[in-house]
């Protein structure tokens, strides 16, 4: 399924956030840029490295007006137990969404029906709730928060500057080019 410009469907999920359980819904993602960061499972070997990397760069995402929402099909109780047990996750400040029925990850076409887990995928979402970029990787390949942040910034730039494009390796205040005109 092509997901570019797909508007997030309605959902309400329980999250573990700042030591408490809370509800997060689609409306909480509106009004600001969001990254929905799906990962297969808590208590795995690769996933904590990614969530720790995101935690280390969380303030950089916040500075550009972007909230991070990590999502797996584990329960919110498992998220809490994992964060409490794994010292490397103690710095996580972003919401860890629990999607045990797969309502959000299915909407994002990131649910693995065979394993019952989320795929390793991330989605950049506009303040209006539309997906403008996404990446899906093998379960054995970790992602890089700095590159994800660069992609967020590039999406924000072209969103605010219609007709401009960001070339490979673009960074904020880097050179852009005009988009080709359609005939």
Automatic annotation (TrEMBL):
InterPro entries: AhpC/TSA, Peroxiredoxin, Peroxiredoxin_AhpC-typ, Thioredoxin-like_sf, Thioredoxin_domain. Residues 2-157 form the Thioredoxin domain. Keywords: Antioxidant, Oxidoreductase, Peroxidase, Redox-active center. Pfam families: AhpC-TSA. Belongs to the peroxiredoxin family. AhpC/Prx1 subfamily. PANTHER family: ALKYL HYDROPEROXIDE REDUCTASE C (PTHR10681:SF121), THIOREDOXIN PEROXIDASE (PTHR10681). This is Alkyl hydroperoxide reductase. It comes from Bifidobacterium panos.
């Amino acid at each position: 399924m092509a997901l570019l410009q797909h508007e997030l469907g309605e959902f309400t999920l329980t999250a573990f956030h700042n030591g408490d359980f809370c509800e997060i819904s689609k409306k909480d993602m509106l009004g600001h840029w969001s990254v929905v960061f799906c990962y297969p499972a808590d208590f795995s070997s690769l996933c904590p490295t990614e969530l720790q990397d995101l935690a280390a760069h969380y303030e950089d995402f916040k500075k550009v007006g972007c909230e991070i929402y990590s999502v797996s099909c584990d329960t919110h109780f498992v998220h809490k137990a994992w964060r409490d047990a794994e010292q490397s996750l103690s710095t996580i400040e972003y919401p860890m969404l629990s999607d045990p029925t797969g309502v959000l990850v299915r909407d994002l076409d990131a649910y693995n029906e065979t394993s019952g887990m989320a795929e390793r995928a991330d989605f950049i979402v506009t303040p209006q709730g539309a997906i403008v970029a996404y990446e899906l990787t093998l379960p054995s390949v970790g992602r890089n928060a700095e590159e994800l942040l660069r992609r967020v910034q590039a999406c924000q730039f072209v969103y605010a500057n219609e007709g401009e494009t960001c070339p490979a390796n673009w960074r904020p205040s880097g050179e852009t080019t005009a988009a080709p005109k359609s005939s």
